Amino acid sequence: MHYLDNAATSWPKPETVYTVMDQSFRSLFSPKRGTAKAARLGANQLQAARQTLATLFNVANPERISFTSGATHALNLAIQAYPWQAGDGIIISAIEHHALSRPVRKMAREKGIQFFVVPYTDALPFDLTAYESLLKSHPEIKMVATTHASNVIGSILPVAEIGSLAHQHGKLYLVDAAQSAGVLPVDVQAQHIDMLAVPGHKSLYGPPGVGALYISEAVQLNSFIEGGTGNDSGKHAMHATPPDGIEVGTIPLPQILAMAEGARWVQEMGLSKIHHHEMTLLAQLLSGLQEIPEVTIYGHTDVAHKTPVVSFNVMGQEPKVVGERLFDQYGIALRAGFHCAPMAHEAIGSIHRGGTVRASIGYYTQPDDVAALVNALKKLLSESFSRV
Ligand SMILES: Cc1ncc(COP(=O)(O)O)c(C=O)c1O
After folding, report:
1. Which residues contact 338 (CB under 8 A, 6 or more apart)?
2. Would the CB of 151 count as within 6 Å of ligand 1?
3. Residue 388 has pLDDT above 50, yes or no
4. Of all helices (H) and strands (E), which one includes residue 265?
5. pLDDT tens-digit readout, 248-281
6. Is pLDDT above 90 for 24?
7. Which end of the chain is more exposed for a tag (fewer CB within 10 A), N or C?
8. Which atom of ligand 1 is the closest one to the Cα of 149?
């Protein structure tokens, strides 16, 4: 198999991630519960995991990082547990994933908030003046929320500039780092980020079912899930203060420690080394696809402003059919369709094409994986997709 679906989930994982997951599942108990030594050891490891993520994202106080079941859970928390009043506003971008846009739409339906969408165009991907004029003309806006990078076309948003604008106007900034954590530098202080949602299973090379939410001291959220926190057990009321007020119920310690091991591995390997490898393969992929006249690439092709994610279509072919043929005949695993981000497909004009075929590169991708995709497309085209 040639695995080119790392924007969905990275595969394989570093060997040490599998080891940590296995060993912690066998030998550690969930912290905050029980008196066994394994529970106390678990508590120490949990603290170390928080510190590892804090170092990666330049978070001053690791206790402001709470573990969640993934980026979707983290974004839902950040958006749904915010104390919205009817009429409050939020700015989002035109290329958001459902994990961010659906909770925003839900708050619009149920709490009466307004949402403003900053448009995307290939020529001017992220118009900072559009953010600025919305912030100036709508004092009711409370939060700006954007993805750091598109999961469909890989375009990178200028998060530091957007965060700075949000802060100049006294607004909170929420960033969905699902496509950037472990790919690009993410620094909550330098990028003016108040809340950061992170998945474990993508470029932090951890397992599925785990992620994290950083919440700065400037943010006060309501509780999202109520239950046992391991603290205040004798009281009926629960405090929503992170991390305990977020990590409600028995937490998935093996997944958390495996994610932290992935994050540790990313730091040991070095973001710049990972990035260099991925950008080299991205350039190979883009130039290979550009050689094929029947292939249309969406979004800009400037590697300096992209994560290693490429969306394309083949003239006259349904993306889903192309995806299936690539796997069935050539063992190339990628993703075809809307990638849970129809807003992005509306923005790039692929919504009526059934979305796009998306190839995405990770640290374990090799040049022959990229070459296999380009060659397979050429072969399928030479057969004129006759077996469709
Ligand atoms: C941009 C973006 N946001 C959020 C998510 C959701 O992440 P998770 O799978 O951790 O819930 C994804 C995953 O595909 C994504 O690409």
Report:
1. 345, 351, 354, 355
2. yes
3. no
4. helix 253-269
5. 999 999 999 999 999 999 999 999 999 999 999 9
6. yes
7. N
8. 1
